[in-house]
């Protein structure tokens, strides 16, 4: 499971011109579910996301987590995070999970975050989405449940 996490001041997602998810200060999480991922991967990445100390404290040091600042999460399913571009010029998505498993684990991941007390807004799984992110910093973190980075 891969995630791109961006610290954001304001973010929203639209589907067919309608805003379906929006947050104020917090994190935007683009989540890619890989074939072979399971609930353990969801817990690993969710724990990392909630615990990341990437918000500035009173001294300007990145020392606070999402929960410390009372932030929200906009979570977007993005299978293209599993694109393999090492061979040729067209990405291969063979490592991406099946639609059914990816949808199930995406929903499970969001539920873990909600159980942690985080407000979570989402896009619509498999929809064509337009995501607007006001990245603060900019701060962008890559996470991988297989610890590849």
* Helix share bin: 10-25%
Structural class: alpha/beta
For this structure, what is the CATH class? Alpha Beta
Gap between N and C termini: 12 Å
Question: Could you name the key traits of this structure?
Answer:
six-stranded mixed β-sheet, single chain, alpha/beta, 149 residues, globular, two-stranded antiparallel ribbon, 23% helix, D-tyrosyl-trna(Tyr) Deacylase, Chain: A
Task: Please explain how this structure is put together.
With 149 residues, the protein is α/β, with parallel strands linked by helices. It has one domain (2-143): D-tyrosyl-tRNA(Tyr) deacylase (D-tyrosyl-trna(Tyr) Deacylase, Chain: A). 23% of the residues lie in helices and 38% in strands. It has three helices and eight strands; from the N terminus they run E-E-E-H-E-E-H-E-H-E-E. The protein has helices at residues 39-51, 66-69, 99-115, and strands at 2-15, 18-23, 26-32, 55-56, 62-64, 72-77, 120-122, 130-144. The strands form two sheets. Strands 1, 2, 3, 6, 7 and 8 form a six-stranded mixed β-sheet that branches. Strand 6 (72-77), helix 3 and strand 7 form a beta-alpha-beta unit. Helix 1 (39-51) crosses helix 3. The model has no long low-confidence stretch (mean pLDDT 97).
Give a brief rundown of this model.
The chain has 149 residues and is an alpha/beta fold. It has helices at residues 39-51, 66-69, 99-115, and strands at 2-15, 18-23, 26-32, 55-56, 62-64, 72-77, 120-122, 130-144. It has one domain (2-143): D-tyrosyl-trna(Tyr) Deacylase, Chain: A (3-Layer(bba) Sandwich), CATH 3.50.80.
């Amino acid at each position: 499971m891969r995630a791109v996490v961006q610290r954001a001041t304001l973010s929203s997602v639209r589907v067919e011109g309608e805003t379906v998810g929006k947050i104020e200060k917090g994190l935007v999480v683009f989540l890619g579910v890989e074939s072979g991922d399971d609930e353990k991967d969801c817990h690993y990445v969710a724990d990392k996301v909630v615990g990341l100390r990437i918000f500035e404290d009173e001294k300007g040091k990145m020392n606070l987590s999402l929960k410390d600042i009372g932030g929200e999460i906009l979570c977007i399913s993005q299978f293209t995070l599993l694109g393999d571009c090492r061979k040729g010029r067209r990405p291969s998505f063979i490592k991406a999970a099946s639609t059914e498993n990816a949808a199930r684990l995406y929903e499970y991941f969001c539920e873990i975050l909600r159980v942690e007390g985080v407000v979570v807004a989402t896009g619509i799984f498999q929809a064509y989405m337009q995501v607007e992110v006001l990245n603060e910093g900019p701060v962008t973190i890559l996470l991988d449940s297989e610890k590849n980075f």
